[in-house]
Amino acid sequence: MSTVALPEFAAAPVSERRSRRWPVIPLAIITIFVLAGALAPFLGLRDPAEQSLRLKFRPPVWEERGTWAAPLGTDRLGRDMLSRMVWGARVSLAAGVVTVLLASAFGAAVGLVAGYYGGRVDAALMRVTDATLSFPIILLALILAVTVGPSFVNVVLAIAVILWARYARVIRGQVLTLMELDFIAQARIAGAGAWRIITRHLLPNTFNTLVVLVTLQIGYVIIVEASLSFLGAGIPPPTPAWGSMIAEGRDFVTSAWWASFVPGIAILLVVLAFNLLGDWLRDTLDPKLRQL
Amino acid sequence: MQDDTRSDARALPPTVIDVRELRTHLVTRWGTIKAVDGVSFAVQESETLGLVGESGSGKSMTCLSLVRLAPRPAARTVGGQVLLDGDDLLTKSEREMQRIRGRKVAMILQDPMSSLNPVFSVGMQMREPVASYHGLRGRALTERAASLLASVRIPAPLQRLRAFPHQMSGGMRQRVVGAMAIAAPPRLLIADEPTTSLDLTIQAQYLNLLKELQQQHRFAMIFVTHNLGIVARMCERVAVMYAGRIIEIGPVRRIFKTPAHPYTRALLASVPRLAAKGERLTAIEGQPPDLATLAPGCAFASRCAHVMDRCRVDAPPPVTLDDGHTTRCWLHVSA
User: Fold this and answer.
1) Do B83 and B122 have their domain in common?
2) For tag attachment on chain A, is the N or C end more exposed, with fewer CB atoms within 10 Å?
3) Nearest-by-CA chain B residue for A196
4) CATH code for the domain in which residue B99 is found
5) Are both B214 and B155 inside the same structural domain?
6) For position B280, what pLDDT does the model report?
């Protein structure tokens, strides 16, 4: 009896309050970008593709030649950086979320099956997982871009096809520990079949891990997508993507720093926010996952 | 024998589980281990059979083999019969077994801390078996679940249905497991050291509770333990296992009073007694045998005080001493 009551009294009040505090800044950053991206057509911004050579390379509004017509400046074709950044958020966030959801669903399924059945099934699935993990994502995406042509779908598939392996690994490891616990044996003895045990007992117990991993990986996927766009193997123009915006501004860093700086800051903020949120979720949901 | 009991209702209650020559082998990298090596016993309605022996003697493997849940792919039941109400479980399909488990055979495991799913409330976990066994829904289902909790003496059962496992004590959780086990209610309850991790006072309560539930539902019970004190108060008969075999089986009183097998004698002598103060405890010398490299003959021969030449050559056959008391020892075979 005492083992149940003890933690409630023993926990230090200070550290508890600190870990329970909501991660306001990361949440605010993510909310702003998500809202801006989702409501992009209704914000009264200029068309992100609208060119105006008269307005090219205008600096942000606080600089000398700045204009309120383009608060964050314009790029080499006179396109509005603010508008492009907002529309770019759509692409980056959508790519991040869709990819991670696809990868986590498939990876979790593989991990659950491998951990539950064990033996040869496990060995076979884990070898495939190892092989997948050893394949560089960027290389696969470049191959896809060259052979099939760059597109949003190809970027998502190229990343998801490799990213699932991490989920499979982590979930399988957790399932192996869960399988040793009596409630799995008890469920079997009560007549539960494989499907029931996997969906009702194993999956719900790995949910915390999944949520943490998904959040942390969204930031990672956004970086990978930006890298691909930077290399020209990602989202093709004219769709504004942060990675390709940095690539376009690269040649003018000395004269028009904002062309690369604005999308760069956007990537930094969003990825940092997702990582901080993921860290917070990990600490709140399951302190045992510290090594992730 | 079963036919006799059916014609003469007054004689004996019907046999629930009849295990004949059960053999389960474990395939490991050290070779094939005969974890359960020709085990036979029967348990009647309302009767409790104690299964005692050292760790690794095959107690748990025997129980898991009964419900065909011995850990695969390593373990394989290679022979014998498990007759549950006359129906051989070893010939059933996996789908049929899933219907039998829980409904006809229930099991309570050792560790109350991990025997409930931590992410669901007690109510959600209780409702599942009750719904599938009795086809209940909604309010009736909740009430049935609550009444099951009440029957294992959990106070305020309706409120407790909303609690999560971590909000309950070990004793309380083990009661919940007990309540789920009798949801059907089963014909056979296998209790695998259910009180080992409970406080002594809670242990006694829980054992009384099991006995009461047994009287109420008349199920047969197999009680696995290495606590001989618990055997004395819980069981009518006891089977002593050594190296995958039952080396002695019979009524508890007879075996405690006149143990026939040297191993049983040693086991009883190693139980601490309050009365015998200052006396040294008797330990059984040596280690349990390595089942992978078992020599022919009696498995206990290397540790036995009465070992004879023939013990090292041939395994002793079962010898019936008197009514229902059987042992496997050459000492009791008259030449």
Assistant:
1) no
2) N
3) B128
4) 3.40.50.300
5) no
6) 67
Reading the block at residue B264, the tokens are 């049983």
Q: Which of A8, A174, A176, A182 to mutate to test the interface with B (most CBs of B within 10 A)?
A: A182
User: Does the beta-carbon distance from A190 to B129 stay under 8 Å?
Assistant: yes
Q: What is the pTM assigned to this prediction?
A: 0.79
Contacts of B105 in chain A (CB under 8 A): 189
Q: Which residue of A4, A119, A189 is in closest CB contact with B101?
A: A189
Each residue's pLDDT tens digit in chain B (335 positions)?
444 444 444 567 888 999 999 999 988 888 888 889 889 999 999 999 999 988 888 888 999 999 888 887 788 888 888 999 888 999 988 888 888 888 899 988 888 788 888 888 888 888 888 887 888 888 888 888 898 888 888 888 888 888 888 888 888 888 888 888 888 889 999 998 888 877 888 888 889 888 988 999 999 999 998 888 889 889 999 999 998 899 999 999 999 988 889 899 888 888 776 655 666 667 777 777 777 777 788 888 888 888 888 888 888 888 888 878 899 888 888 75
Identify whether residues B88 and B15 lie together within a single domain.
yes
* ipTM score of complex: 0.79
* Residues, chain A: 292
Mutate to test the interface with A, among B95, B115, B175, B187 (most CBs of A within 10 A): B115
- What is the average pLDDT value for chain A, to the nearest integer? 82
Task: Please tell me whether residue A2 adopts helix, strand or coil conformation.
Answer: helix
- The radius of gyration of chain B from alpha carbons, rounded to an integer in Å, stands at 21
Q: What residues 175-204 of chain A have any CB closer than 8 A to a CB of chain B? A: 181-183, 185-193, 200-201, 204
Residues B204 and B173 placed together within one structural domain of the fold: no
The parent domain of residue B312 ranges over: 2-104+184-273+283-332
Same domain, B91 and B127: no
Segments making up each domain of chain A, as ranges: 23-40+48-289
Number of domains in chain B: 2
Which of B139, B160, B183 is at the close of a domain? B183
B11 and B98 in a single domain? The answer is yes
What phi and psi, each to the nearest 5 degrees, are found at residue A118? 60, -160
Q: Which of B105, B109, B169 sits opposite A1 (nearest CB)?
A: B169
Instruction: Tell me B101's DSSP state.
Output: B
Shared domain for B93 and B199, answered yes or no, is yes
CB contact under 8 Å between B69 and A204, yes or no, is no
Q: What is the number of other CB atoms lying within 10 angstroms of the CB of residue A225? A: 29
Angle at A46 between CA A41 and CA A50, to 5 degrees: 115
Is there a cis peptide before residue A48, judged by omega within 30 degrees of 0?
no
Query: Which CATH topology does A23-40+48-289 take?
Result: MetI-like fold (1.10.3720)
Point out the domain boundary residue: B183, B198, B219. B183
